[in-house]
Amino acid sequence: MADAKPQDPPAEAPAAETKGPSKRALEKEAKKAAAKAKKEAFKAADQGKPAASKEPADPFKQGWLRGVYNEKPVKEVHTRFPPEPNGYLHIGHAKAITVNFGFAKSYGGVCNLRFDDTNPAKEEERYFESIKEMVSWLGFKPHKITHSSDEFDQLYELAEKLITREKAYVCHCSGEEIFEGRGGKDHGPRSVCKHWSRSVEDNLEDFRAMRDGKYKAGQALLRMK
Ligand SMILES: [Zn+2]
């Protein structure tokens, strides 16, 4: 302020009392009030309570979903909706879409649409298109659209790593046998199948046979321990 001309009024000139508050002071007051209202609205949304403006409460910031967030309160929420493009979506998918996209949106994050396209025999272009349409129709925009098939080599390597760490095994049970092993009212307690305890070497050899097409679909599968 050293070079201010002497006739310049001081920057924070107090308003003359007789004229009431200056325009500047009024503006300041208004800004303050707006900031306060915004803060209160945020606070209300955070607690899952409706704000004073009767905005509906954010369903993703209360109950079970709030608990999910609190478990790992990351700064950048990143979710994905991973449909298999082998048919049209049904009403149940609306829930998965809304929870994945809505949750990310609520917490200022993003959600990818990831096509789980690892079964080319059953996939058709019209299913890819229809799924994209459905997501958009529900009012969401994917951050990125990705394809699992692009990462097939990496997925394969990770699968071998799981086998090496004894976290996965190749199983030749039928669908019915697998279902029974899961236990339940009619099947008794959960149980492992006879393939569960195979050696790492045996599993790797069999898994590579799967990769090389030595089994037909349904004759072998990689299961997590
Ligand atoms: Zn088995």
Give the tally of β-strands.
5
- Which hetero compounds are present in the coordinates? zinc ion
**Which percent bin holds the helix content?**
40-55%
Poorly predicted ranges: 1-6, 13-18
| Element string (H = helix, E = strand) | HHEHEHEHEHHE
Proportion of residues in β-strands: 5-15%
Question: What structural category do the secondary elements indicate?
Answer: mainly alpha
Please report the number of helical segments. Answer: 7
Straight-line distance between termini = 73 Å
The major beta sheet can be summarized as: 3 strands, parallel
Tertiary shape: elongated
Average per-residue pLDDT, rounded, comes to 86
Largest sheet, spatial ordering of strands: 1-2-3
Query: How large, in whole angstroms, is the Cα Rg?
Result: 29 Å
Plain-language structure description:
By secondary structure, the protein is mainly alpha-helical. Helices cover 42% and strands 9% of the residues. The chain contains seven helices and five strands; from the N terminus they run ααβαβαβαβααβ. It has a three-stranded parallel sheet with strand order 1-2-3. Strands 4-5 form a two-stranded antiparallel sheet. Strand 1 (78-81), helix 3 (91-106) and strand 2 form a beta-alpha-beta unit. The longest helix has 24 residues, at 23-46. The radius of gyration is 29 Å and the shape is elongated. The protein binds zinc ion.
